[in-house]
Design brief:
about 170 residues; alpha/beta; Alpha/beta knot; 7-stranded parallel sheet; 5 helices; 7 strands; about 40% helix; about 20% strand
Amino acid sequence: MADIPRQCPVYGLLDNIRSAWNVGSMFRTADAAGLAGLYLCGMTATPPRPDVEKTALGASSTVPWDYWRDPLEAVRSVRDQGIQVVALETAPQAAPFDTFAYRFPVCFVVGHEVTGVRTAVQDVCDATVAIPMHGGKESLNVAVSFGIMAYAARRCWEDQMISSNRQA
C-alpha cells in the first residue's frame, strides 16, 4: 500500500455536535484515517478550545477544517464543488453503509447526539446510509459512528485505487 496517499478524498461534516469531547475525538479519528478535512457546523465546537484539545490531542492542527454557521449552506456548498454528500443516519430510506457505492470525493454528515442529522439536512444530501444496529439501542455514539464511517469510506476509496492500479 506504499503507493496509496496518506490523505484520501473523504470529508466529514459535523451538524450541530453538542459535545466538544466528541468533536475532539472526531478530529483525532479524521487524522488517523487520513481524511481530507472537516466542516464544523452550527453549535459544533471549534478549535482552539481546551475541551476539544483534551480528546483531539493536537489533531485540530493537522486536519484542515472550516466553520459554517448553517449546516444547510455547508452541504449545498460542498455539493456545488462536485463532492457527493452522504448523511449517516438511522432512517427508513438509508442504505447499508458498508455496501453503498460511494463516489469520490465524498463528504459524510453526522448529526447531533440526540436528534441526529436534521431532516432538512438529509433532504439536501445525495444519499443516506446507516450502520445496522443489532442490539437494544437504536444508535451509536456519534464519535464512534464517525470512526466507523471514516474507515469504511477510506477502505472503499483504497479498494477503488487498488482496482484502478491493477487495470492500468
